[in-house]
Amino acid sequence: MEIPQLRRNRIYRRQTTLPPLPDCVNTCITHQSTVDSQREGGCAFTDTRCQCGSAAYAQPLYDCMAAVSDSCSHHFAIDDIHLKDVQS
């Protein structure tokens, strides 16, 4: 019997082709994932589909990344991130 390969979501596959995110950005992601998972109607900590489609998740994340971008050891294009709320 053939064992199926573990499935990875598209976001994970894309991330493997990019350089690792700096610690300051990872801190923003971890913090926002924790806060949003505790909010009524928020996304589960590891629910990337929900997180990517929710402006309520993404806007505070964007704000955090914008705040740390000057002090971060890695320059990233915060202006390239576009947010829109997706209705289910």
Relative strand content? under 5%
By secondary-structure content and strand pairing, the structural class works out as mainly alpha
Largest sheet: none
| Distinct helical segment count | 4
The poorly predicted ranges are: 1-15, 79-88
Query: What's the pLDDT, averaged over the residues?
Result: 69
Q: Encode the helix/strand succession as letters.
A: HHHH
Distance between the termini: 38 Å
Tell me the helix content. 40-55%
| Principal-axis shape | elongated
Radius of gyration from the alpha-carbon trace, in angstroms: 15 Å
Structure overview:
The chain has 88 residues and is mainly α. It has a domain at 22-73. The chain is 47% helix and 0% strand. The protein is built from four helices and no strands. Helix 2 runs antiparallel to helix 4 (55-68). The chain is elongated. Mean pLDDT is 69; it is low at 1-15 and 79-88. Residues 18-73 form the CFEM domain. This is CFEM domain-containing protein. Keywords: Disulfide bond, Secreted, Signal. It holds the Pfam family CFEM. It is found in: Secreted.
